[in-house]
Write a structure and sequence with these properties.
The complex is a heterodimer of chains A (342) and B (329). The longest helix of chain A has 17 residues. Chain A is mainly beta and 342 residues long. Chain A is globular. Chain B has a single domain, classed as Beta Barrel (Porin), CATH 2.40.160. Chain B has two helices and 18 strands. In chain B, a hairpin with a 3-residue loop joins strand 6 and strand 7. Chain B starts with a helix and ends with a strand. Classes of the chains: A mainly beta (342), B mainly beta (329). At the A-B interface, strand 4, strand 5 and strand 6 of A face strand 16, strand 17 and strand 18 of B.
């Protein structure tokens, strides 16, 4: 067993960043609903799994914050496929109807770690998802694609500094919303197993043909990760990210609402068997007194195997999305497969 | 009135160069622990003990408010490069930057704003017995500004020569100072001339292989100068300025945490557009933080973020983020 494995450097799934989509100056109610739907959807489902300070023990999973990829154990080629099920919303239950929407996506991950420098490329070519409008309990499909590139350096196995760039394209009813961001982050490792990290991301959103708007997103977290990925290893992480409300104009379409995201993760590797648990809470806060906060509360369980080269995982997520007294349950199944070189 | 606004804006435009190079401005006596940072005054280059090259990419956004109403939105992008090399006890550093600003006008007013800034500087210093560093430098800067519909792209050029000295006491305490002679030229004024005089004190502890700490406090002042109008060219006036810089850096195991604050005041009289009273309030504050990995040799990577505030009858607020990469040879 290589001694170099006594520090961490693995990783979790990729998680594109929260972002909003909203268009300025849209005149019709239909378009406003579409746009607001994109905003909320963008905020929620752009986020996958949060690895902010440390990477998942599943090497096929990407990290959200660049600095975390330094703590991987070697290079990886990974793929992931996700199947969503969004079952009947509460509103529908009252009239006895059941609506089931399904969508899926696939992603690819390449992480190259020759020495103390690590590069990660993550791509989701096309992800189909549905926007839920709680006022009418209707769903409308949209498509999202994103790419993420990160570069980090690890210094003396006690800290990591990373930079990254992201590009999201969300298409709904032929309206294209472009979200680009870049940022920097760092994490420090103390007492061999405790990791603390923080980062800042500058986001620019260009909705359709309208003027772009910008906001910052802050990340922070603390984690404990110790062991050997080829033997016994344990990881737990508490992390958060947030963005402040940004107004570019007086109308609701010109507001980026305040958002927050918290994540608790626990993972264990027991002689190649992987067990994971993750709890996430995402909130999009109302920007006026008449509005309601929107929340998504998800819990994910996973099992898998990790060998010296091959790894795979199966994940099941359940939770709900809620606005005021209305809610809808969400279920999600995921498979990951990775080929690693420690 | 027009010319008064014109002069005010020239000043603001030139000050904006300082906004972008805030980190360099904090290196008057000693160099930053980040060797990829440009060095504003020549003599600190002499204390650089690493040959390096660096490149930075900056995005900055901000706005201008007058009387609580947002007049402008600014969106700036740009790059900077830096190179430092040594030949025995001679040290040469060169840096360059270029920034372009897109401006959105939120209310229908006519007013000046910056379009782009660019500049370059070269420093040569000689170190004697690790006791004294004497440096000479030259700097050029060019600012392109929108002044009015009649002057949509006015160009201001600055050329300066610098000379300064810093003295090391047991390689821990550093004191020094210098002078910079500045010439400003454009198409509508006679040539402007003034001098910036700087002095500072610094403390540097630790060794490159261990924990290092650096702090520096410095000040730069320039008196008011005026060059008489000639023919169709206007009077060139430079208002009295005072700049104070505070820098603090700590580095352990190659990881640098950097903090910097630059405060600048300009004694420029103008009529406040809100109160319609005479005023000289013209204060800038640039606060910067940064985190970088600086190895003994190899890839440098990190980032800086700045918050910039300009207080006049209007207020400008900017925030910027810079990714810095480089290589230490």
């Amino acid at each position: 067993m290589p001694n170099s494995c006594n520090f961490v450097e693995e990783r979790h799934h990729c998680q594109p960043y929260i972002f909003n989509i909203r268009l300025l100056g849209i005149k019709t109610m239909k378009f406003k609903i579409i746009l607001l739907g994109i905003v909320i959807l963008g905020l929620f489902s752009a986020k996958l799994y949060a690895q902010i300070v440390t990477p998942s023990l599943d090497p096929a999973v990407a990290t959200e914050l660049s600095a975390a990829i330094s703590w991987r154990f070697g290079s990886t080629i990974g793929v992931e496929t996700t199947q969503f099920q969004k079952t009947d919303a509460v509103l529908r239950k009252t009239d006895g109807k059941t609506v089931k929407t399904e969508d899926n996506r696939s992603s690819a991950l390449v992480a190259y770690q020759p020495t103390h420098t690590t590069i990660q490329l993550f791509m989701v070519p096309a992800e189909k998802d549905y926007d839920w409008d709680p006022s009418t309990d209707t769903y409308q499909s949209f498509q999202r694609a994103y790419n993420k590139a990160s570069l980090t350096v690890r210094g003396k196995n006690i800290f990591s500094i990373g930079v990254g760039a992201n590009n999201f394209t969300i298409t709904k009813n032929s309206i294209i919303n472009q979200v680009k961001s870049y940022g920097g982050s760092f994490s420090v490792r103390v007492f061999k197993g405790i990791f603390m990290g923080a980062g800042l991301e500058k986001v620019t959103e260009t909705p359709g043909q309208l003027d772009p708007r910008k906001w910052d997103k802050q990340y922070s977290g603390i984690a404990f990760m110790y062991g050997d990925p080829l033997s016994y290893m344990f990881r737990t992480e508490l992390s958060a990210s947030s963005s402040k409300e940004v107004k570019t104009g007086p109308t609701e379409d010109e507001i980026h609402p305040k958002t927050s995201y918290t994540n608790i993760a626990a993972e264990a590797l027991l002689k190649g068997y992987l067990l994971t648990y993750q709890k996430t809470l995402e909130s999009v806060f109302a920007y006026n007194e008449q509005g309601d906060d929107k929340k998504r509360d998800m819990t994910r369980y996973g099992i898998g195997m990790r060998g010296s080269n091959l790894s795979y995982g199966f994940y099941f997520s359940e939770g709900e999305e809620s606005i005021n007294t209305m809610s809808r349950p969400i279920q999600k199944y995921q498979l990951t497969f990775g080929f690693s070189f420690i | 009135m027009y010319f008064s606004k014109l002069k005010s804006f020239i000043l603001i435009a030139l000050l904006s160069c300082g906004f972008y190079s805030g980190s360099a401005l904090a290196q008057v006596i000693t160099p930053s622990l980040d060797p990829t940072q440009p060095i504003a005054a020549p003599s600190p280059a002499g204390w650089v003990n690493k040959m390096s090259a660096g490149v930075g990419y900056t995005e900055q956004s901000g706005n201008r408010e007058l009387g609580g109403i947002q007049e402008y939105e600014f969106d700036t992008k740009g790059t900077s490069v830096n190179l430092a090399v040594s030949f025995k006890n001679f040290y040469l550093s060169a840096s360059s930057f270029a920034y372009n600003t897109a401006t959105k006008l939120n209310i229908p007013i006519e007013g000046p704003y910056n379009i782009k800034d660019a500049g370059s500087q070269i420093n040569l210093s000689l170190v004697g017995n690790q006791f004294v560093s004497i440096g000479l430098g030259a700097r050029v800067a060019e600012s392109t500004d929108y002044l009015s519909a009649l002057m949509p792209e006015a160009i201001n050029k600055e050329q300066s020569t610098l000379g300064n000295i810093s003295i090391s006491v047991k390689e821990i305490f550093f004191i020094g100072g210098g002078i910079e002679r500045v010439k400003r030229s454009n198409d509508y004024e006679v040539q402007g001339l003034w001098s910036n005089t700087s002095a500072g004190i610094a403390l540097k502890l630790g060794q490159p292989s261990g924990v290092q700490f650096r702090t520096e406090i410095s000040s730069t002042t320039s008196p008011e100068t005026a060059n008489a109008p000639k023919g169709a060219l206007l009077e060139a006036k430079h208002y009295k300025t005072a700049t104070t810089r505070y820098a603090m850096e700590i580095m352990f195991s190659g990881l640098i945490f950097s903090a910097l604050k630059v405060e600048k005041s300009t004694n420029e009289p103008y009529i406040d557009q809100i109160t319609l009273q005479n005023s000289t309030t013209n204060n800038e504050a640039n606060t910067q933080g940064g985190v970088l990995w600086i190895p003994e040799q190899g890839l440098v990577l990190g980032f800086y973020f700045n918050n910039i505030y300009l207080e006049r009858d209007y207020n400008d607020k900017h925030s910027s983020f810079r990714i810095q990469a480089g290589y230490v040879f």
